Amino acid sequence: MRLRPQRLMPVVRTAWKRILLVGRHLWQELDQGQLNLHAMSLSFTTLLSLAPLLAVSFSVLKAFGVQDVLLPFLLNVLEPLDTQGEEIASRIVGFVENIRVGVLGTIGLALLFYTVIALMQKVERAFNDVWRVREDRPLAQRFTHYLSVVIVGPVLLFAIISALTQFSGAAASLPIAGGLLTPLGHGLERLAPYLMLAGVCAFIYIYVPNTHVRLGPALIGAALAAVVWLFTGRLFADVVVKTGNYTAIYSAFAGLILFMLWLHLAWLILLLGASVSYALQNPQRVGRRLDGHSRSPTETVLRMVALIADDFAHAGPGWTAPALASRLDMRQDDILSLLERLHAMNILMPDTHKPPAWRPAAALEVIPLEKVIEVAEGATVLDEEGSAVSTIMRRMHACRAQALSGMSLRDLTRTPSPQSHNNHGDLRT
């Protein structure tokens, strides 16, 4: 019994370090302001695209005969707006019901789907930025991916609501164990909004970003986002809506202003939950920036090229940008920027896979090491006239060119060429 606290101490320390790590990452994300900008952009885009999105979802629900679930779902989402939320939800449902998708024609139907896809694309780019992913999905994959979310999402949502409702009702009606399961059924009924919200958030975190998101970090981020959503909703209803200040100031526009404020907060909470998932899945990349890293750009490029060259020399599968970012403890967009510069100088080239694996653009012995260092340092502009700085820079370049003469990417591998080994020693990474 005395050993149990000692065994728990490492677990407590690890959990506390993770909490501090996530807190630091969230502070950095909020301090940079990028999440707030994404939330503002998404709230405005949602305001413009909400009716077309719900029209498509309503058509899918109507085909299954469960269109009545739309109004309760909107009332649940807009619950912090109190009576304003009920009015907005009724107006949205009435507007959606008046949309006849069948009579829109080809152009109208195309514009309807384009609006929905444009909203989903902006949502994906926002979550990709949270996950440090720069590459968008291909056009064909993007189209099928977005439509599957819009079409399958409402059906799954209705299935979750129906399952929770039926289980809570069945638990109370059982003749034998009903007395024991009735409290469980009532508790589950109270937790139903939270469980539904957490499930939707987890689905978004896993399915929307163009990268692999593990289930564990996604569920933790979704659970925290759901808790913050419910707490913020109650605070928003008590402090903002029920005080009546916005109604006195904006009069007839109060409902719209409150709706936009809640949209902004909702998107910000979703993005913060995604940031929690990112920090839990990539603890080694939290807070790491290329400009603030102790490693110089030249050393970073050499280490990256060494990994790719050594993998190529041993017929490996190749290094992708996410794998390099994880190995070098760097942001993926910084890695991609360096890879693109090396690709422009015909040093590296990507393959056709998604995400692409990077390999040398020629034989290892053909690519000089001096050229790699020049790319790492960037173009240096020297004056034609002999100033003191230009003279020193030319001498430095000449000394470096002489020291690296005859060296190639082969010298960055674990099996350097015999000639390089005899002339320059064994350069390993």
Structure description:
It is built from 16 helices and 3 strands. It has a 3-stranded antiparallel sheet. The protein has 2 domains: 3-285, no CATH class; 297-424, Arc Repressor Mutant, subunit A, CATH 1.10.10.10. The model is unreliable at 289-293 and 419-429 (pLDDT under 50). With 429 residues, the chain is an all-alpha fold. Helix content is 71%, strand content 2%. Helix 2 (34-63) packs across helix 5 (105-130) and helix 3 runs antiparallel to helix 4 (83-98).
Count of DSSP helices?
16
Helix-strand makeup class: mainly alpha
Could you name the ranges where pLDDT drops below 50 across 5 or more consecutive residues? 289-293, 419-429
The amount of helix comes to over 70%
Number of domains: 2
Oligomer: single chain
**Main sheet?**
3 strands, antiparallel
Distance between the termini: 48 Å
Overall geometric form: elongated
Main-sheet strand order equals: 1-3-2
The portion of residues forming beta strands comes to under 5%
Query: On the 0-100 scale, what is the average pLDDT?
Result: 76
Along the chain, the helix and strand elements come as HHHHHHHHHHHEHHEEHHH
Find the count of extended strands (DSSP E, 2+ residues): 3
Radius of gyration: 28 Å
